[in-house]
Amino acid sequence: xxxxxxxALDWTPNTNHTGFYVALATGAYKRAGLDVRFLLPDEDGYxxxxxxxxxxxxxxLAIAPSExxxxxxxxxxxxxxxxxxxxxxxxxxxxxxxxxxxxxxxxDGKVYASYAARYEDDIIRQMIRNDGGTGxxxxxxxxxxxIWQALLSKEADATWIFLPWEGVEAEVQGIxxxxxxxxxxxxPYGYSPVLIAHRDWAGQNADTLRQFLAATAEGFTFAAxxxxxxxxxxxxxxxxxxxxxxxxxxxxxxMVSSYYLNEVGQWGKMEQSVWESFTNFLIxxxxxxxxxxxxxxxxxxxxxxxxxxL
Length: 310
Hints:
- Helices cover 37% and strands 15% of the residues.
- α1 crosses α9 (206-225), α1 (18-25) packs across α10 and α7 crosses α11.
- The longest helix is centred in the last third of the chain and has 20 residues, at 206-225.
- The strands form two sheets. The chain has a five-stranded mixed beta sheet with strand order 2-1-3-10-4, with helices on both faces. Strands 7-6-8-5-9 form a five-stranded mixed beta sheet.
- It has helices at 18-25, 28-31, 50-55, 66-74, 120-130, 147-152, 163-172, 199-204, 206-225, 227-238, 246-256, 272-284, and strands spanning 3-8, 34-39, 61-64, 79-84, 91-96, 111-113, 138-140, 158-162, 177-180, 194-198.
- By secondary structure, the protein is α/β, with parallel strands linked by helices.
- β6, α5 (120-130) and β7 (138-140) form a beta-alpha-beta unit.
- It folds into two domains: 3-86 and 191-303, 3-Layer(aba) Sandwich (D-Maltodextrin-Binding Protein, domain 2); 91-185, 3-Layer(aba) Sandwich (D-Maltodextrin-Binding Protein, domain 2).
- It is globular.
């Protein structure tokens, strides 16, 4: 009898997700005795975040930024990361090169197109301060699908992107960007995205979770080694309008494939030092609060993630 897994994606199918679709396409999930269903955010108009869908029982696993883990744990909801989808940060804050805004410190008074994600604006504020600015900027919140366009149309001066997706899109269109990497400005950002689970579900379904992660690791390892073939599998298996440009998807896949595995060729494994550094940053910056706005003074990084099921 097959075990079922409902996986809530954080975005419409893209090259961050390729390993999951490769595992489906190659039969890795089937061989592991799993019936895996992907839940896409556009199915409900982005009404629920993947983490919210998970905690409300509508999904077994979800893809989310590590900030979601902090947010739920600060409110005593035992959500934990069980694998890193990407082994290192592939994101950046960007401006148009033509804008002349070539440092975060120059974003004072400028418009930042925000996803309104947990800690997002606070992180941007701290990055600006770390580069000598005051951290005072205008946070604009366009519709999720309009954020990138807001930068291109100059309605916003800066936004946060994934380099292997919007970064590649800019390159294809001949749009030059200034890229501000968080670590370059003393922001020890965590893993993003991560695969998350409720700790109780993970413990009760440990064998199923191990089988799922092993099959998924096969998919991501294949994608890292065979990016062009993996891109084709993603396009064919996901069959989603966002993947209609084959050349773009292939170009994105070639770039993101270098982010899948750690330095020893493993997918999913997380380092405690990464979680500790981000935890300390959030606490030191007074960003970690519970639902009542009470400052969280301590959070054990060990409770935020586990490599137990890999």
